[in-house]
Amino acid sequence: MAKAKSFYIILILGSLAALGPFSIDMYLPGFKAIAKDLNTDVPKVSLSLSSFFIGISAGQLLYGPLLDKFGRKKPLYFGLILYILSSLCCLFVTSIDQLIILRFIQAIGSCAAAVASIAMVRDLFTVEESPKVFASLLLVIALSPMLAPTAGGYLIAALGWQSVFVFLSLMAVLMLLTTIWLLPESYEPDPTYSLKPKPILTNFFVVLKEPSFYTYALVSAITFSGLFAYVSSSPVVFMDLYKVSETGYGWIFAILSVFFIGFSQVNSLILKWFTSKKIVFWALILQCLVSILFLVAALNNLLSLYVTIGFIALFLGCLGFINPNASALSLAPFTKNAGSASALMGALQMGLGALASAAISMFAADVMWPMPAVMTIAALLALIFLLIGRRKIKPNTINQ
């Protein structure tokens, strides 16, 4: 694929993949304003974040078979239109329960973009190219936590929290038009692909039986749950515990995202000398050490604002190494079932993310330790699954 064509395709796919993260990050500075406007509290508002995670997790299982049946673009159109309509409805909510439901529907729409973008990487690029492409996608996706909370903080301060959903609606309209006009169809629709429950479940089972998939998809998903623990608890940690302003919170979120971006791009460079499998292993070891030290410091009241930012930055940096390589390794064995495989991987990520977010919301809002506790559990579990699962991967399945 020509470099110029490859660049704009990666840019479009990255923008599509960033729709979900943008929808998560942009309204985070508005938690206090939403709680006040809807006569509730911040922990209840955080359930709208959990419902978004659940919607993305469930929706990806829906879109995987649709992408394999109808090609990549038609299901993508449907998801983006659903996202636009549900985002506009968020402007008119009068209770937190309505917002929780609409965020679930919004997530169902956004996950079409997430699944399609991952599947199209597998369609358009070779196994050897995929880790670098996923790292490039992360570069685009990572603009979300850099820009979204900062922009959201200023929008909310100037125009109210509803303005965030106006912005998200316009963003999705632009993506829909770009997809229609500029993005090629990368997969020939398969009229023989059945949408009946039994064949769909059979395809998912075929994917799940592949050791490379369940090992590296679980590693990616479990470590990502640590990221969601940070995202869901960060408004409380920074704005309540450390008394940071809405705009200040946005800037902290952006600075931390630089580490995620930076390490994911360093990953592209070191792939010249190290395999994806080695990078995942050593990054996980480092992430375990960082998260354990973070938890010990939190339990002993040794954390300040800047020390907390430092630990989170290191955790996200490790994730920048783990995620692009684990994603590429989990999808490497598949061609025909790439849509179903990417859907399962995304469902695992968002499902575990929803659990991590819900777990955080169960604790009191005036304590620090739940966030590093979930991060530590995630890192240790991922390492355990990697050590067990990689023994079952056949050497010729993946050569990275």
UniProtKB/TrEMBL annotation:
Q: What is this protein called?
A: Bcr/CflA family efflux MFS transporter
What SUPFAM superfamilies does UniProt report for this protein, alphabetically? MFS general substrate transporter (SSF103473)
**DNA-binding listed as a keyword:** no
Q: Which residues cross the membrane?
A: 7-24, 44-63, 75-94, 100-121, 133-157, 163-183, 213-231, 251-270, 279-299, 305-322, 343-363, 369-388
- Organism expressing this protein natively: Pedobacter frigiditerrae
- Would the keyword Ion transport turn up in this protein's UniProt record? no
| Keyword entries, A-Z | Cell membrane, Membrane, Transmembrane, Transmembrane helix, Transport
One biological process term in Gene Ontology: xenobiotic detoxification by transmembrane export across the plasma membrane
Its placement in the membrane is given as: Multi-pass membrane protein
Q: What is the lineage of its organism?
A: Bacteria, Pseudomonadati, Bacteroidota, Sphingobacteriia, Sphingobacteriales
